[in-house]
Amino acid sequence: MNPARPSDPPVRFANAEKINPIQLLLDLHDHAVARTPGTGLDDVLTELALSAGVVSWWTRWQPSITHTALRAGADLTNIAKAIGLDAGEVVDRWRRWVDVQTRLDIGGRPSVDPVEVQAIERRLGSGVVR
After folding, report:
1. What is the C-alpha separation between 119 and 123, in angstroms, rounded?
2. Higher pLDDT, 7 or 39
3. What is the pTM of this model?
4. Quick check: 62 and 26 in contact, CB under 8 A?
5. Which residues 6+ apart lie within 8 Å of 45 measured at CB?
6. What's the pLDDT score for residue 130?
7. CA dist., res. 112 & res. 100, Å (int)
8. For 49-94, how does the pLDDT look when each residue is reduced to its tens digit (9 = 90+)?
9. Among 124, 39, 119, 130, which Cα is nearest to 79's?
10. Angstrom distance (rounded) from CA 119 to CA 103
11. Percentage of the chain surpassing pLDDT 70?
12. Of 122, 72, 67, nearest in space to 99 by CA
């Protein structure tokens, strides 16, 4: 369930992060397109809040999407190029996410299959350091 959208655009990160992440992207786009030179303080703060909300959501999503790409057979070089990071940083972020997900118990099972993780680690070879 998505939280109710506020009637006024957010001017604080705390309000922006409560908005559905896809809606945040749409709101940021619409706000940036409609902005004109000389906009008021609230307009500038709204853009900052929306941008910060998008970055926050994306930061949490990125390792999950990286895992999805790895499961689909993408190689580390292509993932790194897609994200704009070096391969080591991609692996570090993915590793931190995997470590949490494999310990997360959902109905008696981990959120991410450890066998699947091991298969990805083998495929990555030396790119994964434990």
Report:
1. 6
2. 39
3. 0.71
4. no
5. 11, 12
6. 41
7. 9
8. 999 999 999 888 999 999 999 999 999 999 999 999 999 999 999 9
9. 124
10. 17
11. 91
12. 67
For the record, the structure tokens of 21 come out as 């992440």
Better-scored residue on pLDDT, 38 or 101: 101
CA distance 95 to 89: 10
Looking at residue 106, the DSSP 8-state letter turns out to be E
Contact 112, 100 (CB under 8 A): no
Q: What pLDDT was estimated at residue 38?
A: 76
Q: Which DSSP string corresponds to 52-96? A: HHHHHHHHHHHHHHHHHHHHTT--HHHHHHHHTS-HHHHHHHHHH
Which residue, 39, 36, 40, 50, is CA-closest to 6? 50
- Residue 44 CA: distances (Å) to CA of 38, 41, 47, 113: 10, 5, 5, 44
CA distance 104 to 60: 16
